[in-house]
C-alpha cells in the first residue's frame, strides 16, 4: 500500500495543485486531486487481469475549474438543486445567488466546493485527508463549516469516501461526490449496456421543470432496478419521468440514515467482467446517466470528448430540493452536531 504525490498544474492565482495516487497490493490505483477533492481516476482489472481507468475526468487542474460536467469533484455546501435559490432555517429565509437557469442554485453555487483547493495530508499509507473551511455567508449560506474529506483505499479493492463536517451555527449541508463511471473504461463509449441494481422501491419523481417536488413514489417498472436491468432497457421509452430528464436523473430513497453502511447499488459490465458495489449510510442515492455530457466541450483525459451517456453517477446524498419540502429528509446540521457520511465503492470481477 502506498501514496505518492505528483504535480497537477497551477491555478490562475499561482497556487499549485497536486495529484495523489493511492495504490494497493493488487495494483489498483486511485488518483485524487486537491482541486475539488476530486476522484480523477480509478484503475482496476477486468476478468482477464487487464487494467483500465473507469472514471471520467481531466488531465490537469485547470480543466477542473471549468464547472462543466463536475467530473469527479466533491460538491456542496448543498449539492443538486435548490429551487428559487432560497430556503428557510429556524424561521429565517436565506436568499442565495442563483447559478442555474437564472433562478435556481445548482451544486452549491458559483463558489461551492468543486473548484476549491483543499489542504492535503497523508494520514497513513492508504488514507488521504483533504480539508477546508467554508466561511459564514459564502454563497449565501449561514455558518462557518469545517469540512474534512477522507479517502481510504483497501486491499479489498474498495475506495471509502467519508465526509465529516461541523459548524459554528445551524446550517444546511448535503455533500456528494460527482464521479462518472464507465466500467469498460472511461473512453469506451456508452454505459447503456451496464447492468444495474438499486436496492430501493421508492424514488422522488420530477415535475415538468425537472425539479423534485416532495413526493415519494413507489417505483414504476421503468424506474425499478431492484432486479438486475440494463441501464438502456427503458431509458428511451415514452415514460414521462425519463422524457423529462432525457434519461435517468432520479433520486432513490434508502433505509440508511447515518448508521451502518447499507448496500445501495451494484453495477456489472459484461464485456470486461468488472463489477462495482456501492455502500453508504446516506438516506438516498441519485442515478444520473450522463444525459448531457456531450454539451460540455472540454476534452477529458487523453483528449477524449465524452458523449451523452458515456458515464453514470451514483451520488449518495439527501434528496435534491429537500429544503423546500419537509416530506423529505432534511439536510440540516445543527451547531454541536457532526455531519458524518460515508460511501464505499467496491470493485471486483465476475
Model description:
The longest helix is centred in the C-terminal third of the chain and has 6 residues, at 240-245. The protein is 2% helix and 39% strand. The protein has a single domain, classed as Beta-galactosidase, Chain A, domain 5 (Distorted Sandwich). The protein has one helix and 27 strands. The strands form seven sheets. It has a nine-stranded antiparallel beta sheet with strand order 11-12-13-14-27-23-22-17-20, with no helix packed on it. A five-stranded antiparallel beta sheet has the order 1-2-3-4-5, with no helix packed on it. It is mainly β. It has one helix at 240-245; strands at 2-10, 16-23, 29-33, 38-45, 51-53, 74-75, 81-82, 86-89, 92-95, 105-106, 119-122, 127-134, 145-153, 158-167, 171-172, 176-177, 195-198, 202-204, 217-218, 229-230, 249-253, 262-268, 274-280, 284-288, 313-317, 332-333, 339-349.
Question: What is this structure, in a nutshell?
Answer:
The protein has 350 residues and is mainly beta. The chain has one helix at residues 240-245, and strands at residues 2-10, 16-23, 29-33, 38-45, 51-53, 74-75, 81-82, 86-89, 92-95, 105-106, 119-122, 127-134, 145-153, 158-167, 171-172, 176-177, 195-198, 202-204, 217-218, 229-230, 249-253, 262-268, 274-280, 284-288, 313-317, 332-333, 339-349.
Order of helices and strands: EEEEEEEEEEEEEEEEEEEEHEEEEEEE
What percent of residues are in strands? Answer: 35-45%
Reading side by side through the largest sheet, how are the strands ordered?
Answer: 11-12-13-14-27-23-22-17-20
pLDDT < 50 stretches: none
| N- to C-terminal distance | 24 Å
Give the structural class.
mainly beta
Average pLDDT:
97
Share of helix, binned: under 10%
The fold-level CATH name is Beta-galactosidase, Chain A, domain 5
| Overall geometric form | globular
Question: What is the radius of gyration?
Answer: 19 Å
Q: How many distinct folded domains?
A: 1
CATH class: Mainly Beta
Biggest sheet features: 9 strands, antiparallel
Helix count, DSSP H or I runs of 4 or more residues: 1
Beta strands, count = 27
CATH architecture: Distorted Sandwich
Amino acid at each position: 500500500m502506498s501514496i505518492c504525490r505528483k504535480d497537477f498544474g497551477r491555478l490562475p492565482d499561482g497556487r499549485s495543485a497536486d495529484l495523489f495516487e493511492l495504490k494497493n497490493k493488487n495494483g489498483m490505483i486511485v488518483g485524487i486531486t486537491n482541486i475539488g477533492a476530486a476522484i480523477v481516476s480509478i484503475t482496476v482489472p477486468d476478468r482477464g487481469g487487464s487494467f483500465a481507468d473507469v472514471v471520467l475526468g481531466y488531465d490537469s487542474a485547470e480543466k477542473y475549474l471549468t464547472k462543466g460536467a463536475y467530473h469527479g469533484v466533491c460538491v456542496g455546501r448543498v449539492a443538486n438543486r435548490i429551487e428559487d435559490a432560497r430556503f428557510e432555517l429556524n424561521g429565517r429565509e436565506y436568499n442565495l445567488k442563483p447559478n442555474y437557469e437564472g433562478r435556481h442554485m445548482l451544486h452549491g453555487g458559483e463558489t461551492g466546493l468543486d473548484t476549491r483547493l483543499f489542504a492535503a495530508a497523508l494520514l497513513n499509507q492508504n488514507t488521504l485527508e483533504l480539508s477546508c473551511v467554508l466561511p459564514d455567508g459564502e454563497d449565501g449560506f449561514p455558518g462557518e463549516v469545517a469540512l474534512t474529506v477522507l479517502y481510504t483505499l483497501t486491499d479489498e479493492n474498495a475506495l471509502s469516501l467519508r465526509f465529516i463536517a461541523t459548524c459554528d451555527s445551524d446550517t444546511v449541508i448535503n455533500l456528494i461526490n460527482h464521479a462518472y463511471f464507465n466500467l469498460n473504461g472511461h473512453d469506451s463509449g456508452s454505459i447503456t449496456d451496464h447492468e444495474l441494481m438499486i436496492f430501493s422501491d421508492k424514488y422522488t419523481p420530477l415535475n415538468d421543470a425537472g425539479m423534485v417536488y416532495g413526493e415519494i413514489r413507489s417505483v414504476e417498472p421503468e424506474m425499478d432496478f431492484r432486479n438486475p436491468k440494463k441501464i438502456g432497457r427503458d431509458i428511451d421509452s415514452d415514460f414521462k419521468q425519463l422524457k423529462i430528464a432525457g434519461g435517468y436523473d432520479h433520486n432513490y430513497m434508502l433505509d440508511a440514515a447515518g448508521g451502518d453502511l447499507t448496500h445501495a447499488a451494484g453495477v456489472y459490465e459484461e464485456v470486461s467482467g468488472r463489477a462495482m458495489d456501492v455502500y453508504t449510510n446516506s438516506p438516498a442515492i441519485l442515478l444520473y446517466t450522463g444525459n448531457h455530457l456531450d454539451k460540455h466541450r472540454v476534452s477529458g483525459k487523453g483528449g477524449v470528448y465524452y458523449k451523452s451517456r458515456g458515464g453514470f453517477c451514483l451520488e449518495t446524498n439527501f434528496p435534491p430540493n429537500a429544503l423546500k419540502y419537509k416530506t423529505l429528509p432534511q439536510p440540516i446540521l445543527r451547531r454541536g452536531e457532526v455531519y458524518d457520511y460515508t460511501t464505499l465503492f467496491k470493485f471486483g470481477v465476475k
